[in-house]
């Protein structure tokens, strides 16, 4: 009988919990002794669901869609697709494909809903489709002169291509300088706190990929065809249907954690990893600290880390030299690169309001009295507002809102940096600021419409692509030198991954552990190739 391998997984977010389940499912407990260390008491990381007075907030908005069929099946196995209409489906007479034998959302909680995506851009007090579409509304909102300027600007960008050595040039090459200045320049600076010319084009290559004016045109004309297209034929940024857990993304990860624990995984919360010890060029143990400051050392054969790369490198201690009592820190040049990796944090403000001033002028019926707009989220590209995105939770799932017929539960996302003036504002002042912006935008009438509020701070939400990011390859080489250490997930790889990409890195890492594969190129290459997941 072979001896079990012990595996320590750092982090209980999508990547960490995916790794745990991949190791333990189908009788894996006979081969692996798995421990998950989660710093907080919640699961899902930034994919968690926040509960407040009977209402639920999705941190950041999470569409469950992937071009990777493994991931789609994984989600479906965890939370089966609805087999009967949801509350809003019934009230609105909405029809879509149901899963034969699937659960009824009105009766069962563990269920995945099918949702229709509507997103728009708010710019100059006008709404544009997101992504920009060939619709009468688009041309009407832009006007003849602006439309002509944008069109000729795009034609110029097709003739004269700029070197894609920064994000600004990346966008101009795909949309033309006029549309870039309208919809990308100010929003990107709002998001990252840096001008696009200072940001690596890698971010665009990962997040935008094949989206361009030509992509929008192809999608628009393809939609005119009577043939129904599979989602695999559509750019991810243009996908119009997605899945969504009844109670938000956190419900899926809470379910995965329950499944892991039932299958034999040891899950420890309030367990912050503060040190990784090494012996003979391999990681030998981690030291974690509980909420009371007590430290515990845990040895293992394999280590999977989704903790921020910056924190990981600072936690790696080199062995003490002869005659020295304490271990040394990681090499100085690696610590320098790690500490220079930037992040953007954000604050999200939940506001429960009586109604919205925005009128539903679309063909999509919605709940509410009066009916609300159908948007899942609204991108605030207008530089006159600090607000980055506005979520309308009623449209993600009616079950996120305690009184979905008579109240609207919205989430306002503000990009900032931990410790800056906005981050440090009191909750009362942040809420006042958020209400004033929504009032100026004419989304609500004023403070008198607000029934409840909640502020949530989110650290290290977005790994950023500037400062020492251009030396990231050095860190990858250093970390891969530890044969039994695998870096996975958004912060674990300092890569702005979607949730499905983070899961894929974990699946690849577990595959390497099971097969004995030594190269980790497959783990790091997820979401780097333009065609990976996004095009088939």
Automatic annotation (TrEMBL):
Record region (Disordered): 86-107
Record protein name field: NAD(P)-binding Rossmann-like domain-containing protein
Species of provenance: Bifidobacterium lemurum
Superkingdom per UniProt: Bacteria
PANTHER family (UniProt xref): UDP-GALACTOPYRANOSE MUTASE (PTHR21197)
InterPro entries given in the database record: Amino_oxidase, FAD/NAD-bd_sf
GO function terms (MF aspect): flavin adenine dinucleotide binding; oxidoreductase activity; UDP-galactopyranose mutase activity
SUPFAM superfamilies: Nucleotide-binding domain
One GO CC term on file: cytosol
Extent of Basic and acidic residues compositional bias: 87-99
Domain Amine oxidase stretches: 15-454
């Amino acid at each position: 009988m072979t001896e079990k391998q012990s595996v320590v997984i750092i982090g209980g977010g999508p990547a960490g919990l995916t790794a745990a389940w991949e190791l333990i499912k189908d009788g894996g407990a006979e081969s692996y002794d798995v421990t998950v260390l989660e710093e907080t008491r919640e699961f899902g990381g930034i994919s968690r669901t926040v509960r407040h007075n009977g209402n639920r907030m999705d941190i950041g908005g999470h569409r469950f869609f992937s071009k990777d069929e493994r991931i789609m099946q994984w989600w479906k196995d965890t939370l089966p697709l609805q087999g009967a209409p949801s509350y809003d489906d019934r009230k609105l007479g909405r029809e879509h494909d149901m899963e034969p034998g699937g659960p009824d959302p009105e009766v069962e909680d563990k269920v995945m809903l099918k949702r229709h995506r509507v997103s728009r851009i708010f710019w100059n007090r006008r709404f544009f489709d997101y992504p920009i579409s060939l619709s009468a509304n688009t041309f009407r909102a832009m006007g003849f002169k602006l439309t002509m300027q944008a069109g000729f600007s795009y034609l110029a960008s097709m003739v004269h291509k700029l070197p894609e050595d920064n994000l600004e040039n990346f966008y101009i090459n795909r949309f033309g300088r006029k549309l870039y200045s309208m919809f990308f320049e100010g929003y990107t600076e709002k998001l990252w706190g840096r001008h696009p010319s200072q940001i690596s084009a890698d971010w665009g290559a990962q997040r935008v990929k094949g989206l361009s004016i030509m992509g929008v045109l192809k999608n628009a004309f393809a939609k005119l065809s009577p043939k129904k297209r599979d989602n695999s034929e559509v750019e991810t940024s243009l996908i119009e249907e997605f899945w969504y857990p009844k109670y938000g993304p956190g419900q899926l990860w809470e379910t995965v954690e329950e499944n892991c624990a039932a299958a034999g995984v040891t899950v420890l919360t309030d367990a912050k990893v503060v040190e990784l010890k090494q012996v003979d060029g391999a990681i030998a143990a981690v030291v974690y600290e509980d909420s009371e400051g007590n430290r515990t050392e845990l040895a293992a054969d394999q280590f999977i880390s989704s903790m921020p790369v910056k924190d990981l490198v600072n936690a790696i201690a080199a062995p003490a030299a002869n005659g020295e009592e304490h271990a040394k820190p990681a090499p100085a040049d690696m610590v320098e690169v790690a500490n220079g990796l930037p992040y953007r944090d954000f604050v999200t403000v939940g506001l429960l309001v009586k109604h919205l001033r925005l009128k539903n002028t679309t063909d999509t019926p919605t709940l509410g009295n009066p009916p609300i707009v159908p948007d899942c989220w609204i991108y605030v590209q207008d530089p006159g507002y600090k607000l980055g995105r506005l979520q309308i939770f009623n449209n993600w799932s009616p079950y996120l809102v305690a009184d979905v017929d008579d109240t609207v539960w919205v989430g306002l996302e503000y990009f900032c940096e931990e410790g800056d003036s906005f981050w440090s504002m009191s909750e009362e002042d942040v809420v006042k600021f958020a209400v004033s912006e929504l009032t100026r935008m004419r989304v609500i009438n004023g403070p008198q419409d607000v029934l409840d509020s909640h502020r949530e701070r989110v650290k290290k939400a977005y790994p950023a692509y500037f400062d020492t990011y251009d030396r990231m390859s050095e860190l990858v080489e250093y970390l891969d030198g530890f044969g039994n250490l695998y870096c996975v997930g958004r912060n674990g790889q300092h890569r702005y991954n979607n949730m499905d990409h983070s899961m894929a890195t974990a699946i690849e890492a577990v595959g390497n552990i099971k097969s004995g594969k030594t190269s980790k190129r497959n783990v790091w290459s997820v979401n780097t190739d333009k065609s990976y997941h996004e095009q088939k």
